[in-house]
Amino acid sequence: MSFWRRNRAFFKLAIVTNLEYRFNYILDSIGQPIVTSGVELAFWSAIFASTGQQTIAGFDLHSYMAYAIWASFMARISVNWMYEFRMIEEVESGGLNTLLVRPMSFFEYYLSQFLGYKIVTTLISLTIPVAVTVALGFPMIWSRLLPAMGLAVYYLVFLFIMSFIVVTFAFHLTRIQGISVAKNLALWIFSGELLPLDIFPEPYRSALIHLPFSSGVFIPVAYITGRVDATVLYSGVLSISVGIAALSAIAYPMWKWGLRRYVGTGA
Amino acid sequence: MSSPFAIETTDLFRSYRTYEKNPGIWGSLQGFWNRKYTEKMALAATNLQIEPGQIVGMVGANGAGKTTLIKVLSGLIVPSGGQAKVLGFTPWERDYRYLRQMTVLLGQKNQLWWDISPNDSYSLLADIYDLDRGKAKNRVQELAGLLDCGSVLKTQLRRLSLGERMKMEIIGCLLHDPKILFLDEPTIGLDIVAQTAIRKFLAEYVKEKKPTVILTSHYMDDIAKLADRLLLISKGQIVYDGTVPGFAQKSKSKQKITFALTEPCAHPLILAEQHFPQGTLQFSVEVTDHQLPSTMNQITSLTGITDLRLEQVDFEEVIHDFMRGG
Fold first, then answer.
1. Domains in chain B: how many in total?
2. How many CB atoms lie within 10 A of CB B278?
3. In-domain check, residue A188
4. pLDDT of A132-142, one tens digit each?
5. Set of chain A residues whose Cβ sits within 8 Å of the Cβ of B76
6. Is B99 within 8 Å of A102 when comparing Cβ atoms?
7. Which of A117, A163, B44, B320 could be A14's S-S partner, Cβ–Cβ 3.0 to 4.6 Å?
8. Model confidence over A57-80: pLDDT tens digits?
9. Quick check: is B29 in a domain?
10. The pTM is what?
């Protein structure tokens, strides 16, 4: 009972905190998706215009535009810059002190906030790709949207455990923003945000799609835009599950090891 | 709890590894390839027994080891060696049953949520500690009334003054009625009015609730007015463990004579083994009981004395003398 009670409270905390700063919240949930969608549309239009081809790797401009619009939306969900940096900062600055002395875990505190923030902003941001897709008539299978979103939310748990592991390096190295940036740039490619993974040649294509990272952007977007079928979605669920199991096995020992080094600086 | 003590430590110590950097760019380049680490003893082997309900004041210079001891006992950091039991729990295992019974106030650190109002923070704390919402609300009102800060409960924490923030932090710390309080510099940086209000509040609180308290402060008044046991820490070691009055008794300097002359003194003076050069106008002499009569005789034989006063030496000065080895 107390577990759910406090985690519900952390979930709400993320919403309350972010609503305190209205301008930043609106910019983050609406402004950013509009800008990234615009950039992606311009990018693919330019590529098709310069190559003069009707299709690339079997897909036409509308397919790529649909992919680009939804990929920028999904990518916005499936990154953890903000909370990962906050978590690193807690360890670096000693802010972790205030969390360690309370009957709760750092992991649940940030996971619940992360999910709270993502789910609420996602519902608002969703209006942008929906509006663009309807307005411009991009290919889209609406009945697939809910399962795709479910996969994205499941991916968030995997993503968060990855962030948690990155944070444990801060106990030993203090300044680790470089690791965080490198990881997020790698995810930019591996998730399919930069380019659809199905345009890579084999065997890279299959390898990338079967890694859990593809469930962040490529699989849900490819599924709703009709590039892949449900079997790929299920393989995404499976690869995330394996990923979560593997990361969890190392996350807890790394955290315990880090805490032994922690000095609670700043107090 | 089998032990009769609320807090018990056996050879508890903590050392840190620190990196020594030579100054300048060359030092940074050297440090990039070849870092020289040294081990620093933050807390030497400490054996401590504190009974339930005792209020222990810890005094020591910056870096003496006070905060390290609090951090270990509250479970924030893991010691390098030794044992500790607080309410029967090993603190750094962070058992929730232990964390629900203790609180830490780190005066130099915000513990409430910066971006939301204290009321929202207290509501969150009620959820974390699984408290009854109605009772928690009443408790906030009660504590805010005692601290005279009810008007700012709905204001975002970041917009409050330091004194108001500290009051909010104190309410947050006490919301769950902890049995153990670790208070690290609760009045640091506050003006005299806020210091007095918080000191008064804490005195009333401990009298009513009888928690076990470990308090550190740079303001000796905090310790003198609140603590019934004094620990003096120097360079990671406890150098005095006893009562506050006992410590004052132990001190050699107990009274201070101050006076002025209408004309600068014509010759150098030696009063209670302290030298005053020719031309001195204002005098301040610390004396023991034994030195008092002869020194007073010496002073009253001087001509043109004004504003002669005899007062007890300030507790803060006694501590400083002790730490200096005086």
1. 2
2. 10
3. yes
4. 889 988 888 99
5. 97, 100-101, 262, 264
6. yes
7. A117
8. 788 888 888 888 888 888 888 887
9. no
10. 0.82
